[in-house]
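Re: [help] complex structure
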Amino acid sequence: MSPPEVTGEAAGEVRRLVPDVETLAQRLAGVDYLVDEGLATSIFLSLRLPQPLLLEGEAGVGKTEAARSLAAVLDTPLIRLQCYEGIDAAEALYEWNYPRQLLSIRLADSSGSTLREEDLFGSGYLIRRPLLRALEHPGPRPAVLLIDEIDRADDDFEAFLLELLAEATVTIPELGAITATHPPVIVLTSNRTRDLHDAVKRRCLYHWIDYPSARREVEIVRRRVKGASETLAVQVADAVSRMRDSDVQKPPGIAEAIDWLAALSLLGVERLDAAAVNLTLGSVLKYDEDQEVIRAAGLEQLVHGGG
Amino acid sequence: MADAPASDPAFGLETIQLDLPPLAAAFSRRLHDAGVPMTPERPADLARALTLVRPVTRRRLYFTARSVLVSDLAHARAFDAVFDSIFGDRPREGSEHSDDARTAPAPPDERPRSEHRTSPGGSAQRDPRAHAAPAPPREGDADEDGVAVDVPLAMASDEELLAGKSFDALEPHELAQLYRLMSRLELATPLRRTRRRERGRRGQHVDMRRTLRAGMRTAGEPIRLARRRRRVARRRLVMLCDISGSMEPYARAYLQFLTCAAGSGPHAEAFVFATRLTRLTRALAGRHPERALQRAAAAAPDWSSGTRIGDALKEFNDRHGRRGMARGAVVVILSDGWERGDPMVVGREMERLARLAHRIVWVNPRVGANEFSVRAGGMVAALPHCDALVSGHSLHALGEVADAIGAPSWDRRDAPAAGSGAQPAAELDDEQEPWASATPVPGSSVAMPSGHGPSRGNTTPGWLTDDGR
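Output below.
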C-alpha cells in the first residue's frame, strides 16, 4: 500500500489546490460540474489518499464528465482510455513503431553502420498509448487518467490493469518497469454490464452516482445550456424526472436533459407545452417504445404533472 | 473545513490516530458480519481516509466510510444498516439521498439467511414433497415418464434409468446423483469472433511485432510474414429459471442445472425469478455444489410463490440485458409459461430480449407431456420470439437443451416454413447419438416429444408456425 500521506511535489500541488472537501466542491462548481457531498468526498479521497476511484451509475449521470471536470480543476490533461472488447496492451499501453524500426535496420544496412537491438527498442521507437502517457506525464500536477467503461473490456484486461492501479507502474519487457514520477489520478467508470473482478474493486474507492435532485438538476442544466430561461429549465427538469418515474426502458440521464433543454432553447421555446415536447421528444427519449409510453400517458400530463 | 493539513499534518494525525484504528476495525468487522466483503487493508484505508477528511458531520463520516468500504451498490444497504446501528440514524437532509432507495437495485445477497427457511436448498423441507411429487398429475407427465423409464431398448443401469426419469418424480438421493450426471453435459454456446487477435498461420492480419523479431535473424529482412487472426470465443450463456409454485417439482433439479452451467465457465450468468428477479451467478460460483445450492436458496426470497414472468423479464432487460449482458448471448429461460400477470407484458419483453440476444431457448418441462399444447398465456405470448422450445424435463431431455444452446445460428430468420419442422433436427442427429437410445413417443405430432421423437431436434420451428404465426 502507499504511504499515509503522499509527499513530493505533485502531492503538494494537489494539496494546495484541494485542501478540503468543500474547496473541491467549489472548484468543481467553478468548472460547471455540480457535485453532492458523497461524490465530492469520494473524489477528494481519491485525490488525496491517493487511490483510484471507480464510478458507477446509470448512463448519462456524468461519470465521464466527473473526470473531465477534475482535470479542469487540476488544470492538467485528461488522458482517456475508452475500453472495448478485446483491448490489449498494444492499444492501451504501448506499441513499438515497427515501420520505423524496419527503416532503421535497412538504413543501417546500407550505410554499413552497426545497429544493436537495444537501439531499436529505445524510447524513440515507442508509440505511447494512453496508459503510458498518463504515467509519463511530466507534472507538476498529476494527469487525470480516465479508464472509461472498463466493463466493456474483457477480464484479462482487468488483470493487466492491477499493477497500474495499485502502484502506478507498468512493465514493458524490453524496457523494464516504468514507474510514474507523478502518479496519475485514476478514474474508472463502469456501466455494470458485468461484475468487475474483486481484485480491481479492492484497489479502488467506489461511488455510485445517482440522479440528482430536481433542484440540483435545474442548476446543472442551466449551467450547461447558457441563456436558457429558468422557467424552461425547471419545466424540463420536472418533465425528465417524471419520465424517470414512468415505465420507460431507458430513463433519461442528465445528459439527455441538457440536450433537450439545448434543443428547446435553440427552437426559441419559452415555455414547455405539449406541442414543443412533441417536436423535441427525440432528443430526450431514444427508443420508439419509450416515446409511445410517454405519448400514451399524455404529453400535457408530462408538462404539468398532477393527474 | 478550515483546517489546513498542510500547515500541521502531524497534529491532525496524532489526535485522531489514538482512537481511529480500533473504531475502523470494529466497524469493518460489523460490516463483514453483515455480508459486506472486507479485506484486511480496508480498516487501515478507512483510518487513513478519516485523517484526511475531518468527519465534522455524521454525513461526512458516512460518505467517507462508504467510499472506502463499499465497492458495490448491492452492499450499500447493508452498509447503511450497520452505519445506522453504530452511529445512529444518519441525517437524510437533501433529497439526493432519498432517491437512493428508488434507483438502487434490490441487492440479492445481503438479507439475513434466517428469513428464508422455506427454500428448497434446505432439503429437509422439500423431501416429503419430492416423494409425493409423482402423485399429483400435472398435465399428465407422470404417466408419460413411466413410458420413458420402461423403454426396453435402454440399458438397465441406474444411470440410464435416472437419466430418463422426469425431474418431478425424483427421490432426494437421486437428485444428488443427478448432479454428477448433469455436470457431464457440455454446455457450449456458439462461437463468436472477438476483437482480440491471436497468432494464426493463415490469419488475415500481419503481426508486425513477430515479423520484425523474426526478421532480425535474417539481417533485418522480413522474409516470413507472421500473421494474426481474430480469436473466437464462446457466447455468453444467460439462464433465467422460474422458481414459482407451478415449477416447484423441477426447481431443485433445474437449480442444479444452473449450478453446472454457472460452473461451466466465466461466460455463464444465472438468475431465478418468481415474483422478482434474483441474480445467482455469484451464489452459484464455488467448488461445492451443495453449498452453492444453499447459498442460492437463501438468496432468492420468492421460492414457490406466484409467477410474474413479464415483470421478471422486464427487470432483466432493464437492469442487465440492455446494459450488455444479453447482447449476443444465448438466453435460456426455464419456465412453464404460467403467468399471473399480463401476458402482453411477456410478449413485449420477449420481443425486446429477442432483439438483444443471439438465441433464446425456452425450456418448458410441460412440453414433454403427450397432450401438450400451448395454453399457458405467458407461453403463447413468448413463443413467437423463441428460437427453440425444448422440454428438458429429464436428464435425457436436458441433453437436448444442451444441443439447443449450442445449435449453429440458423435462427429466427432461417427458420424453416410450416411443416418442415423436422428438417433441421436431422442435421443434428449424429451429435445426439448418446441420447438416442429411446423409442419415439406416440402421438408426438404437436409437441416436442420429450427428447425421443423423430423431430427431437430441439426446436419447434414447424410447430411454432402452426400455432403462433
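The longest helix of chain A spans residues 230-245.
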